[in-house]
Amino acid sequence: MSVIKDAIEAMKEVVLLSDKVERAGKTLTDISQELREHDRRLIVIETTIDIAKHQRRLNETK
């Protein structure tokens, strides 16, 4: 009986671990998507700054 009980406990652990891994994967996917969104926003900000610097240099040479 003890062997069966140990096997059942091991299967429960596997199911719990599988659930935790699945949730961690979803969390990582969400974080990855958010990071890509931040990256896009930073690119827009950097581009805006570069354009402003370029326009400033053009205005200074006039």
Task: Describe the protein's architecture and organization.
This protein has 62 residues and is mainly alpha-helical. The chain has one helix and no strands. The longest helix is centred in the middle third of the chain and has 60 residues, at 2-61. The model has no long low-confidence stretch (mean pLDDT 95).
Short description:
It is built from one helix and no strands.
Strand content: under 5%
- How large is the radius of gyration? 27 Å
* Class from secondary-structure proportions: mainly alpha
Task: Give the biggest beta sheet.
Answer: none
Q: Helical content, roughly?
A: over 70%
Overall geometric form:
rod-shaped
Show unreliable segments: none
The total of beta strands comes to 0
Annotation field: number of helices: 1
First-to-last CA distance: 92 Å
Whole-number mean pLDDT: 95
Order of helices and strands: H
Task: Output the keywords.
62 residues, mainly alpha, 1 helix, 0% strand
Which helices and strands occur, and which strands form pairs?
Elements: H1 2-61
